[in-house]
Design brief:
alpha+beta, Endonuclease, Chain A, ph1033 like fold, 8-stranded mixed β-sheet
Amino acid sequence: MTLTRFVFREALWSELQARVRAPARVRAAVAYIGTGGAKLLPLKADDELIVDMSLPTVRHGATDPKEIRKLIRRGVRVWTRESLHAKFFVMGNAVLAGSANISRNAYERLDEAGLLTTSPAAVRQALAAFAKMCTEPVRPKYLAQCIKEYRPPVFNAGRSPAKRGGTPDLRAKLWFVGRVVPLELSDAEERILEKADEQARKRLRLKSETELNWVRFGKPPAFWKSIQPGDWLLCRTIENGQPAYVEPPQQVLGFDTVKSARGKVYHRVLLESLSSSEEMPWSRFQRRVASAVPRLAVSRPRGGPIVDDDAADVILGFWTANGKLVRSGRRGR
């Protein structure tokens, strides 16, 4: 009986690692193997690997030759191929082809997917393609040269680099602010902020459909070094005498500081908001979020990251891609 199924995120890595550890010989063709890759792809003696370990790739940090050395010391036979961009693995009677390079970035942060099949024809075709590419073995002298010329990557693909110094404490694509109170500004404050906003509006990516918004803090919040441009921010807003509501997700543009008319420095998270978006009553949000993130369904929720991407996707799906509210049972975005 032939098995064919789609594997996504954790299921992909679980299936790959379990089958690689099995006794059957593995042939792996994967474009890039980054730092930590020898642990993520537990190849064993007599397994075979094709990887792009060309000098330009090594100098850019996409493949870490020290990880290849670890695999060779295990008894893995390794070839390099500069034109390789494929990612497929022949494991016994199965082949897995997908999007994932072997790196911590792919394992921890990216939405990787693949197709697993036990089709004999697919396995034969993958083995034939693999054999054709085994033309440039990685020999000791070349490996030593690669290790000498390797440079760590300067950024992680798929995420914006940190902008304010230091290593981010944690990563999340969605952040929640539990209490935002609209400001009542003097004329002098309005003039100061309008001048700052003129510069900030230049960062808008969809100027015809979006507008600038921001959240202001008297001192940098705890998440200041972790949140990054491109992340999403969700704010629970409270106005005097009015029921609380949740603003639709807004995308982080960046950060700035503004000095008030009295000389006090405020820190702002700059946001890009859809002009035609809709707010959600807090009571409705509580009911809908309870199953995904119970801690947000309380009367006074604390802000912070939504570190589970699946839970973040559920919350983002409360709104459509154009910021409209989605009825219960339907999917947004």
